[in-house]
Amino acid sequence: MAIVDKQTLKGFFEQGDIPTQGQYFNFIDSTFNLAETSAQVLQGTISASSGDFEFLNLRKAFLPGLGVGSDGTDGMKIGTNFIIGSTLSISGSFTTIGGGVITDSIELNGTTITSTGEEINFLDGVLSNVKEAYDTVENVSQGNIRFTELDNGTDDLALTNLTVTGKPTFAGLTLSKVSKAGIGNFGDTVNAGVGQSITFTLSGIPTIPSKAAGITKKSLPTFISASDCGVDSTIFVTCTTHELSATAFGNASAAALATSGFFISLANESLEDFDAGAANFSAVIL
Q1: Which of 26, 130, 175, 211 is deepest in the core (most CB within 10 A)?
Q2: 39, 59 in Cβ contact below 8 A?
Q3: Between 117 and 101, where is the model more confident?
Q4: 212 — phi, psi (to 5°)?
Q5: Which residues contact 213 (CB under 8 A, 6 or more apart)?
Q6: Could you tell me which residues come within 8 angstroms of residue 37 by beta carbon, excluding any fewer than 6 positions away?
Q7: In sequence order, what are the residues at sequence separation of 6 or more whose Cβ sits closer than 8 angstroms to the Cβ of residue 17?
Q8: Rounded to 5 degrees, what are φ and ψ at 9?
Q9: 151 pLDDT higher than 90
Q10: Contacts of 85 (CB under 8 A, 6+ apart)
Q11: Helix, strand or coil, per DSSP, at residue 6
């Protein structure tokens, strides 16, 4: 049997007509029957100019072929509210005119929409390149940070390549030290090893008069060999065992250019003569 339009059906029942069995079948097949199946197929254009278009008793409403055609006649248009009792599944376009869709579940191209209304409203005004927004940030290795985009693309940032135009500030800074196992002799070359934060010990330091003696005197220089020391480095040296001040200098001298390092000389800041003969030192090279 065939599904025909209303005008054709009216032609079966004009005055004096005796409809055939087939025409009755066409009439029945062309009508909408909720009791026949839980899923109804609606084809063509459905228009409601006022009031509510209700599908409260349907498990699903399948609306095939509802895309807007080039002539603008194809599509489903609702004047106010379209109320769905369960699931709305649309394979083409769906347009509301001055109204909205009221439903508990929406499925687009086989995917159920799980976002809440508040979450969807939050996207209002979001730029089209939202995929570049970052979803997670993680430390993938020492000094390397990874930013994961919403589309699962990644951008990695290596802190070793980080440059700034301003001056960074630090609440605290800790540098690990390389301790020398051996003891260097005062006046000789002391190998302090590799690193920008080092410790070393000097032995054979001669007696250095106290402040109370009124004699301003610094010791002869000792060369500290440090591979991380450069021509433009700034060196801070502290004596950790006695009241000795240490002055670092000469990292651009000919001796330092031949063997990376710097010289130090010592002064006694105590009221007592220094005669211990040995002292420990900590140095930072910047």
Answers
A1: 26
A2: yes
A3: 117
A4: -65, -20
A5: 273
A6: none
A7: none
A8: -60, -40
A9: no
A10: 55, 56, 57, 58
A11: helix
Buried b / exposed e along 245-266 (16+ C-beta atoms within 10 A): ebbbebbeeeebeeebbbbbbb
Are 56 and 74 contacting, i.e. CB atoms less than 8 angstroms apart?
no
pLDDT in tens, 236-264: 999 999 999 999 999 999 888 888 999 99
Please give the span between the terminal C-alpha atoms of the chain, in angstroms, as a whole number: 93
Q: Is the pLDDT of residue 84 over 70?
A: no
Distance CA 184, CA 250 (A): 19
Q: How far apart are CA 37 and CA 9, in angstroms?
A: 23
Q: Residues with Cβ < 8 Å from 241, sequence gap 6 or more?
A: 276, 279, 280
Beta bridge partners of 55: 84
Q: pLDDT tens digits, residue range 20-69?
A: 998 888 888 888 776 765 555 555 555 555 555 554 444 444 444 444 33
Could you tell me the pTM of the whole model?
0.44
Q: Which two tokens stand for residue 62?
A: 């399948």
